[in-house]
Amino acid sequence: MHSKVKNAVIVSLKQDFSEIKELTDSLGYNTIETFYQNRKTPDVNTFVGSGKLQEIEDFIEKSEENVDLVIIDYELKPSQWFNLEKKLDVNVFDRIRLILTIFEERAERKEAKLQVKLAHLNYERPFVRELIHRARAGEHPGLMAGGEYQVDDYYEKIKKQMKKIKNELKNISDERELRRRHRYKSGFYLVSLAGYTNAGKSSLLNLLSDEQVRVEGRLFSTLSTTTRKIKDKKIPILLTDTVGFIQDLPAYVIDAFHSTLEELEAADVVLLIVDISENINIIENKLKVSLNELTDLRVESEVIIVFNKSDLVSNDEIIEKISYFQENNLIKNNKKVIVSSKNQHNIDVLLKTIYESLPDLISFKIKLPLVEQTHPLVSWIYDKAHVQDISYNDNVILSVECNIEIYKKIISKSNDVNGVVF
Question: Kind of pairing, strands 395-402 and 362-369?
Fold first, then answer.
């Protein structure tokens, strides 16, 4: 984070500044003024009209506080960005550049850094082309390019970097796919946590796995996948936390994180985490964004909607909100669970719902003779599957539930001790 808070002004065509303010704050900037213009489409040259642009320029010149950044709550065209920086003589970030800069600060692991770099290079390409055009026309190349920087050389460098990064991410993705196959053959199911950024995914991961993954109350604190084994011993399950969703991200940003988000496509069950304590219209919008993202990622497995942070609202408010979502066909036929990671409310219900949603579970019984090899085999079965019941008489009889891979292994191991699976 920045050691010194800097000042920013925000410009938007939307009256709701809540999300863009949160993003601005997350980068360490203090919002000292907001400018709203009521128009359906941006001005083709400067995003806002000439009168509003003059108002912004006057504010920057007369403000007692230094304005370090102008943030546009929209995705700017390169020409718009160039004209705004030239007119205002201040660094201008559009919404996408703001988010990518936050990503850069949050990225810690190699994969996340590569993903962010690829997205940023994709973002920069049209801007660099604009700077090349402007420089050849004899205009100042702008603040992003650092004045005298040879932007045409930089454009070629971008293309080479992107190719190299894509190859590195492909190798990481291939390695992850091998690990997934190994886990499945070892009897593990994969449950992925999805949802809007800052909905409480990491907190829920900690609670279900009894781990201590770092939890921060800020946007995009998770940019890499984090996988942990669920602490409940019924069925071997791996939980994976993923990067948070956010609305209106261009396709190239989502594509850059595909190797991380593919954990959702490969999951046996997806938990869509929603902050139930927020304003109902905000929740509605975030639900739409999240469900659309899951559809775009071709997620076909069961999606359980987990309404988190129930400790912050009353039961009546929860009932009212969920009824509204059902009436408006937002949560459709999805299973839903209301929980609180903070006070562990309904976690047992969530676990039960997860188990009921796992695909291809096979229920069967095993009869094993009372021989020396039986005890270690029973221990192995307890570790790899859900033993619903066990009884000892002339034989050991177990009622077991597991996936097809472990079922095959149990048959093989039971045959080795002259056991019977039925």
Answer: antiparallel
